[in-house]
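User: Batch of two.

Assistant: Item 1 of 2:
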Amino acid sequence: MAAPLGGITEGFTSFLFGKNETTRLPVRTSTGQAQAVYLPTAAPGLGDSGVIIGREVYSGKGYVYDPFQLYGQQLPAPHWLVLGESGNGKSALEKTYVLRQLRFRDRQVVVLDAQGEDGVGEWNLIARALGITPIRLDPMAALDGGVKLNPLDPSITLNGQLALLRTIIEVAMGRGLEERAGFALKAAHAHVIATVTERQPVLGDIIDSLRSPNTDSIDALGVSLEEIQTWGLDVALVLDRLVDGDLCGMFDGPTTTGIDLDAPLIVFDLSHIDRNSIAMPILMAIVGVWLEHTWIRPDRKKRIFLVEEAWHIINSPFVAQLFQRLLKFGRRLGLSFIAVVHHLSDVVDGAAAKEASAILKMASTRTIYMQKADEARATGRVLGLPRWAVEIIPTLSPGIAVWDVNGNVQVVKHIITEHERPLVYTDRAMTEDAIAERTRASQQLADDPAA
């Protein structure tokens, strides 16, 4: 027997809508047609002005990025951090990005090339294709008339020289410079600048002054010659490594003439330097400060400073402080700094956690390639990535990355053209046919840069 309430409801429904229910027949269709029922949505892009990177994975739209176009509107800072495991496309992204930026006439790029194979840096092929000779910093080559960079180059301000000397010493010693040693260095530097006027002062002059202090400094403090010599002893011993020790040859003379700072691409080849030696952060500090005073100019050019193995910079508190100032200063003059590292834990858990955090905050653009799940979660916490982005980072295929541009988060597939491919993939494992193709592409680019 039907429930009384059910009968009342059925009778009321029949009175309002009629006795027969409306039946909708099923529709057979394809997924391509049915997608119109649920229209796809995608976050807005970054505009269409700048360098094309590739394609957004979810929407299929082209992905265009240019920090100079976005700065001041969508970007508070033009600096960029690139993260990810080896073999997932970081190097290919860097190289194609630089090649595409150089198609604009007001762009200029400096690369610190810390990786290499077959005796040259991995940017060597691109440099040659553009008719540019990399600046190879190599202790052995420098002894035989190779390239030198002088920390006391007159183009660097006196305060810049002193700050650089302190950084070199602190990096080599692994600790901050004590006040007395700092005073001995400052007095020696002032004496050298005042007395060496007919040539470029060099590090050897600083060492001589530390070993034979200026009597004016002694009289001013009321201390003995032996005391001030003792204060500067450790400083002199550290600098002696750059003049007559294991680090000699690169910084112990006047800056090599003929370095073309007006070239569209400037490559410092550091591939002959042991990545794990103390020479690498010292070298990066000297190059960074030298560029700050000789390369960055108020001439309305947009400049890109790309540093591979950037953990050498960010993980040293003394070097990081120099680069932190460079980034703040360069931002006003159109400088975009690109730091490439494998893992964020390389820098945030190191001795320079405070300085690393400050530099990371300046990087408003973050590109993250595939990482293991634990590393992805740690990266997400530090960078404030949304949960969905953190979850897909371990699943990303090579060439696909999560892009976070000041909170605009997209998954982007990097696209490499056939002309770029032979210049970008420089692994030693390439086949002979691929190497021949690479050589042809290099020659074509040299003959016709617009190709």
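Item 2 of 2:
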Amino acid sequence: MAALVNGVGWGMRPLLLVLQTRDVGPRRWVRALRRSPVKVVFPSGQVVEQKPSSGKQRRKEESEAGPQEQQPKQPLQVPSNPTPSAWEESGLRYERAFPGDKRLSSVMTIVKSRPFREKKGKILLEGRRLIADALKAGAVPKAFFFSRLEYIKELPMDKLKGVSLIKVKFEDIKDWSDLVTPQGIMGIFAKPDHVKMTYPETHLRHSLPLLLICDNLRDPGNLGTILRSAAGAGCSKVLLTKGCVDVWEPKVLRAGMGAHFQVPVVSNVEWEAVPSYLPADTRVYVADNCGLYSQVQMSNKASDHGWVCDRRFLKFHKYEEEEEDLETGAKKDWLPDVEVQSYDLEWTEAPAAVVIGGETHGVSLESLQLAESTGGRRLLIPVAPGVDSLNSAMAASILLFEGKRQLRIREERLSRGRSYP
């Protein structure tokens, strides 16, 4: 029995050794697979030495070597690019905004407030196309904030001398941007002066004897759309009376799509000074199709079909009431007597100016007085029964392009008359 036990005991020892070998062996084999061979011995007896290729071995050798034995790293040879070299040779340099830089926030606070804009004389232009149009028209830049250097290199280099160029993160531009998809560049410009601007030659060549007067327009989107229509129709000038929304507000600029730099725009004009901006013999026409005043003066045919607006002329309701003259005893009407006609009848015999009023307050009394003094009329755009009135931007577009059509027909008639005397 003892011999059997001893036999079993001796038989178990190799098994225990094998179990211990299985527990440690795989780790050693894994470490062996990770190592790179130092020498390779072929069956023919040839020995080839292998150079260590791992980065770990290289770092180990560099750490063991002294600082004097380490070779300095050679910089990468980057092929030269002619565009950056030309950009640098022109003397342009840009700064990089570090965390905590408040230059962008301080400037945005100024240009986004109308009182600050008027006090500092600065405006904000956003987007590569709008900035390029402004530079082409002669606007004076003060600073550019951009997220990629390529956006600055697209601009004319001669226009960037002396301008602060500051590279910021795109997230910072996105925080201050009014666009849904910011373009990564913002420009701070001096408030443009229409006298010093250089407008496109094509616009000046196709300019018409047609002006636009914006009277008490308060909606930024409407004003920007009106300016865009004025540039498309070929207006020679746009006047903004005092009380209109700021023409350099970001929403107006976004809706204008560059029209600010295609047609001269004069803002904050007092009504007493409006005639000085008009050419000689200019007739002023008022776009107004609302009120009982228009309905009474329209022809019976139009009234029978309902092509009039039935909303009361609320702003001048107190002037519609007749008042007795103290000297003569006769009754008089304070509302200027301006004839009403349909917009599609000819009204461009002389240089014409069209007045567009705001949707909330309508046209002012001064506009009707100016129309009366110049022999102008009130232009009625017929609308279907039950419709209150048209949007001011739509009414301006209709009248301006109708005026353009009439001027083109008139010019064709004159050219045929000169050809066949």
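The domain at 92-190 is CATH 3.30.1330.30 (60s Ribosomal Protein L30; Chain: A;).
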